[in-house]
Amino acid sequence: MGIMMKIYDWPTGPYPARVRIALAEKGLRSQVEFVLVDLYKGEHKKPEFLAKNYSGTLPVLELDDGTFIGECTAITEYLDALDGAPTLTGRTPREKGVIHMMSKRAELELLDAISIYFHHGTPGLGPHVEIYQNPEWGFRQRDKALRGMHYFDGILRGQPFVAGDAFTMADITVIGGLIFAGLVNVPVPPECEALLAWYAAMQERPSVKNRITMSEPIGAS
Ligand SMILES: N[C@@H](CCC(=O)N[C@@H](CS)C(=O)NCC(=O)O)C(=O)O
Question: Among 101, 150, 157, 211, which residue's CB has the most CB atoms within a 10 Å radius?
């Protein structure tokens, strides 16, 4: 089948990783063209890109009818619904509710918190892109993320996956958080044994392990 979707992407980015993992889990890689947007050059803050995604963040999915879908959760929902057989975002009302709650919690308590730490508590994307920084806010968010790691450790002591018995979008969101934490040197505390064991297992999943090499971006935006 020919390419029918574009994803504006930064290959090593933790949020783009969420969509790369979802694509691999759904077997959709071959239907996607990745378009590189250089975050360190601030390409995502230029008017051409803001017209695609008001929030100025990656990833963004572009459909062949010209629709742009930003936000990893929304993109994952779209990809999961494409084949009429959702595996990542839940089938029953209960599954959907729990998965979305846990994924949002993974954003609030871990991934987004680490992201704020990166942008405010470290040089982030550099002075050309980071026009406002509040280091104290950044450090508070790093502490929040560490508390979040303990929260997810507690969850994973009682069940194999973040939202229950099966791998879902909520796992992908926590994986994104731990990828980002690794990039900014905020290691998972050693006492979070269940979280560490789960993450080691997740890193063996082909969708996670091969997320960068399986499909390189082929052009610039
Ligand atoms: N809520 C957004 C966050 C996306 C996000 O922050 N992406 C990063 C890339 S890893 C980004 O574009 N950062 C650039 C910036 O915030 O300046 C989502 O879930 O897609």
Answer: 211
Residue 53 CB less than 6 A away from ligand 1: no
Indicate the pTM of the whole model. 0.96
Strand order in the sheet with 60-63: 68-70, 60-63, 5-9, 32-36, 219-220
Same domain? For 35 and 108 the reply is no
pLDDT in tens, 86-117: 999 999 999 999 999 999 999 999 999 999 99
Using CA positions, which residue lies closest to atom 17 of ligand 1? 57
- Residues 97, 83, single domain; the answer is no
Mean pLDDT, range 183-204, rounded to an integer? 98
Q: Is the pLDDT of residue 220 over 50?
A: no
In a domain, 220, yes or no: no
For CA atoms 114, 110, 176, 47, give the dihedral sign: negative
Q: 102: domain range?
A: 93-205
- The answer, yes or no, to whether any atom of ligand 1 lies below 6 A from the CB of 176, is no
Q: Separation of 158 CA from ligand 1 center, angstroms?
A: 31
Query: What's the CA angle centered on 176, arms 161 and 150, to 5 degrees?
Result: 60
Is residue 13 domain-resident?
yes
Kindly state whether residues 128 and 200 are assigned to the same domain: yes
Q: Are 9 and 36 in contact (CB under 8 A)?
A: yes
Q: Which of 35, 115, 172 to mutate to test the pocket of ligand 1 (most atoms within 8 A of CB)?
A: 115
Cβ–ligand 1 distance for 120 under 6 Å, the answer no
Domains of the chain: total:
2
Residue 159 neighbours by CB distance under 10 Å: 13
Distance 90 CA to ligand 1 centre (A): 24
Read off the CATH number of the domain in which 80 is found: 3.40.30.10
Does some domain include residue 214? no
